[in-house]
Write a structure and sequence with these properties.
Blueprint lengths: L1 E5 L4 H9 L6 E4 L7 H11 L2 H4 L5 H5 L9 H10 L8 E4 L2 E4 L3 H11 L1
Parallel strand pairs: 1-2
Antiparallel strand pairs: 1-3, 3-4
Length: 115
């Protein structure tokens, strides 16, 4: 399976999608088609952490003053389901591997994996 979750209005996502060979990838724009419970559970099965999937750079994260809160895995899960901006993006699933976010290290690892 090859799938990517991204946000069309995110410049970084658009740049990465241009850099990566997306042949054979199913694409899901998360604002128009929010992540479902089963999709989030699938991502969790690869990452074993909702926190790893959570975007701490989201404007709402700061606006809601979540930085000073102790957030549980269950709460991270609910935040992601309630608000698309809380999913760290892009998220690529390639076979049994997951690539979360836009760090150079993660994107390089993705590129090595898909050739």
């Amino acid at each position: 399976m090859k799938k990517v979750y991204f946000l069309q209005t995110c410049d970084t996502c658009r740049r990465i999608l241009k850099e990566v060979n997306l042949e054979g990838f199913e694409r899901q724009e998360i604002k128009a088609n929010p992540v479902t419970v089963s999709q989030l559970e699938e991502m969790y099965s690869f990452s074993n952490s909702y926190e790893a999937l959570f975007n701490k750079r989201a404007k709402k994260y700061k606006a809601m003053s979540l930085k000073n809160e102790l957030i549980t895995e269950k709460e991270y899960r609910q935040f992601i389901l309630d608000e698309y901006t809380f999913l760290k993006r892009p998220v690529f699933i390639v076979g049994n591997d997951i690539f979360i976010g836009n760090s150079k290290k993660e994107i390089d690892r993705l590129k090595e994996n898909i050739g």
